[in-house]
């Protein structure tokens, strides 16, 4: 990971090496913290833009509400702080990680009146699953770990502790020689991946699981809008792993993974065994949008200059 100079910490910009916490930080022990993953891109016409900044910051606050954390800043202040952190670090293109966590004080499970802190780190980050993955597609394995039940975790919230499930699944998939894990919900339906939402394509109809036990991905939302605008039929409907096996195409999406085609699941070749044409088309349109090369979606961009 390529570090940058400063991290925004409770309103101050502190040197990267000094953005540290006490070992008795409550979140470190019990996992109740909330975070975001956001990207900014260099624009075709100059300058840079953060993609769907407002929606990401709003989701951070919704996540905090779900786990009863009060972030001591407003949505507007956090959005401004993100742009400020990018500018201070002269980061034209990269990844943005806001994290709200519960500090030290009470050490029981109940966090009592422990303070809530907010940090914003930014760093350069290329393709999450590799450049090859974007072009050729990835190999996926259904995880032996089930995605959370909606009454066990707050599945629509991006809560630190939820990601233990993701880390277990990702490690298992990688150790078994795959690129990413596919996670099924407690009833056995396809849910999402460890940090991505999933789509399949069959007879030109695009399908994605509904927002029940999955993270409401902002890339997912963007692709649904884009695909509909391009004339595709998009349905939000549960499907099983065997429907995925026989799909014409499948792909993952997320801020980090962008639009990543899937070429194989559980040793079954998906479609032609290469990145599918719909996935590649949506990927190229997505990259145009995030780089300011499709003005129809300019409202999704928060432009800034270094
Ligand atoms: N599902 C999970 C579990 C994730 O961690 C992410 C990444 N935030 C996504 C889906 C995709 O969400 P987004 O498009 O908002 O990055």
UniProtKB/TrEMBL annotation:
**Record's Gene3D superfamilies?**
3.30.470.10, D-amino Acid Aminotransferase, subunit A, domain 2 (3.20.10.10)
Tell me what reaction this enzyme catalyses: L-isoleucine + 2-oxoglutarate = (S)-3-methyl-2-oxopentanoate + L-glutamate; L-leucine + 2-oxoglutarate = 4-methyl-2-oxopentanoate + L-glutamate; L-valine + 2-oxoglutarate = 3-methyl-2-oxobutanoate + L-glutamate
- GO terms of biological process kind: isoleucine biosynthetic process; L-leucine biosynthetic process; L-valine biosynthetic process
Give one GO molecular function term.
L-valine-2-oxoglutarate transaminase activity
Cited Pfam families: Aminotran_4 (PF01063)
Q: In which pathway does it act?
A: Amino-acid biosynthesis; L-isoleucine biosynthesis; L-isoleucine from 2-oxobutanoate: step 4/4; Amino-acid biosynthesis; L-leucine biosynthesis; L-leucine from 3-methyl-2-oxobutanoate: step 4/4; Amino-acid biosynthesis; L-valine biosynthesis; L-valine from pyruvate: step 4/4
Q: State if Amino-acid biosynthesis is listed as a keyword.
A: yes
Question: What is the E.C. number?
Answer: 2.6.1.42
Q: Which InterPro entries match?
A: Aminotrans_IV, Aminotrans_IV_CS, Aminotransferase-like, B_amino_transI, BCAT-like_C, BCAT-like_N, BCAT_family, Class-IV_PLP-Dep_Aminotrnsfr
Report the GO terms under cellular component.
cytosol
Function of this protein?
Acts on leucine, isoleucine and valine.
User: What name has this protein been given in UniProt?
Assistant: Branched-chain-amino-acid aminotransferase
Organism the protein comes from: Desulfonauticus submarinus
């Amino acid at each position: 990971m390529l570090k940058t100079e400063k991290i925004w910490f409770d309103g101050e910009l502190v040197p990267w090496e000094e953005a540290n916490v006490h070992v008795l930080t409550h979140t470190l022990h019990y996992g109740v913290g909330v975070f975001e993953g956001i990207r900014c891109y260099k624009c075709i016409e100059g300058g840079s833009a953060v993609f769907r900044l407002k929606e990401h910051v709003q989701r951070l606050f919704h996540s905090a509400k779900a786990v009863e954390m009060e972030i001591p800043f407003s949505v507007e202040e956090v959005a401004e702080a993100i742009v400020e952190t990018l500018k201070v670090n002269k980061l034209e293109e990269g990844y943005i990680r806001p994290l709200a966590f519960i500090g030290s004080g009470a050490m029981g499970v109940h966090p009592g009146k422990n303070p809530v802190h907010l940090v914003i780190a930014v760093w350069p980050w290329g393709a999450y699953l590799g450049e090859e993955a974007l072009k050729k597609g990835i190999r996926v394995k259904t995880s032996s770990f089930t995605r959370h039940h909606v009454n066990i975790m707050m599945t629509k919230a991006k809560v630190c502790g939820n990601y233990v499930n993701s880390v277990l699944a990702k490690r298992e998939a990688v150790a078994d020689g795959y690129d990413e894990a596919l996670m099924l919900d407690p009833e056995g339906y396809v849910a999402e991946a460890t940090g991505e939402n999933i789509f399949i394509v069959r007879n030109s109809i695009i399908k994605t699981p509904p927002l029940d036990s999955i993270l409401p991905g902002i890339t997912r939302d963007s692709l649904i809008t884009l695909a509909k605008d391009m004339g595709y039929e998009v349905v939000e409907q549960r499907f099983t792993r065997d429907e995925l096996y026989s799909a014409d195409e499948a792909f993952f999406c997320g801020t980090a993974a962008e639009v990543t085609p899937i070429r194989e699941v559980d040793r079954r070749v998906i479609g032609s065994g290469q990145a599918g044409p719909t996935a590649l088309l949506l990927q190229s349109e997505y990259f145009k949008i995030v780089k300011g090369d499709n003005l129809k979606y300019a409202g999704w961009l928060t432009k800034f200059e270094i």
